[in-house]
Design a protein that fits this description.
The protein is mainly α and 172 residues long. The chain has two domains: 4-83, lambda repressor-like DNA-binding domains (434 Repressor (Amino-terminal Domain), Orthogonal Bundle), CATH 1.10.260; 87-171. It has seven helices and two strands. The protein has helices spanning 4-15, 19-26, 30-38, 45-55, 71-79, 85-128, 143-171; strands at 130-132, 135-137. The chain has a two-stranded antiparallel sheet. The longest helix has 44 residues, at 85-128. The relative contact order is 0.09.
Length: 172
């Protein structure tokens, strides 16, 4: 039974492409392809998906699923043109786009949080310190606005926290 690396090498040779070309199409380095083929390193799930798309075989083929794709289908598939190189780079582009969107949402959330906090502080001061002559009374008319601002600031703080976590995960 062939290893994953041997199958990658076999498909690459049948397709008539070098390790450099394969690496470029998959968005990895030539050394990574070399390590896969030698068995020094195993491709992760995303790499298996890209390899199966690039060589037009089922992902099951790499894990011993010889019956998953007939040998004639493999030969026919590897002689057909590959997907555009942009497809292999799409995950990186999607990650960059997601990062930019999260960054934009983070900035908007910080602005919203600041506005809610300013409202909560302003209405809170008005709510708790309305002076009526010689004594201080609580102004009941301001209470709903104060509570709304406080809840809004808590929700926007939660959004900020979630976006920061998303940004940290996207940078990995």
């Amino acid at each position: 039974m062939q290893t994953i690396g041997e199958k990658i090498k076999k498909l690459r040779k049948q397709k008539g492409v070098s390790q450099e070309e394969t690496a470029f199409e998959l968005g990895v380095t030539r050394q990574t392809v070399s390590k896969w083929e030698s068995g020094a390193m195993q491709p992760n799930a995303e790499s298996i998906r890209m390899l199966s798309d690039y060589f037009a075989v089922s992902p099951v083929y790499f894990f011993g699923g010889e019956q998953a794709v007939a040998e004639t289908e493999i030969s026919q598939a590897v002689t057909e043109p590959a997907h555009a190189p942009a497809f292999a780079l799409a995950p990186a582009k999607d990650k960059k786009r997601a990062f930019i969107i999260c960054l934009f949402l983070l900035i908007v959330s910080v602005i919203v949080f600041t506005l809610f906090m300013l409202g909560a502080i302003g209405y809170g001061v008005s709510y708790f310190t309305t002076n009526r002559g010689y004594y201080t009374v609580i102004n009941p008319e301001v209470k709903p606005i104060f509570i709304s601002c406080l809840i809004g600031s808590i929700i926007s703080f939660g959004a900020i926290t979630g976006l920061v976590v998303a940004l940290i995960n996207l940078r990995k």
